[in-house]
Amino acid sequence: MFCGATNCPLASIFLSVELFGDGGLLYFALICGIGYMLSGYNGLYASQTIVYSKLKAQYINVRTNAYHAGEPGPPSSREAGEETERD
What is the model's pTM? Predict the structure, then answer.
């Protein structure tokens, strides 16, 4: 759960080994990996930026919680000069 909330899989694995011992290292790593993949691009820290996609081999520049903070997202597929009217 800590891994999904903070988007820090390595720190979560090290923390789990420190707390519970190294007997279940494979299980800790597996669960942290699944939690990291399922957490999406939301996180505990609003200033955190995820630069590399979790699902595809490409660079992205996503700020966690940007959508919830009301910040504009990346440009959409529409042309840059085209403006739309909002109701």
Answer: 0.59
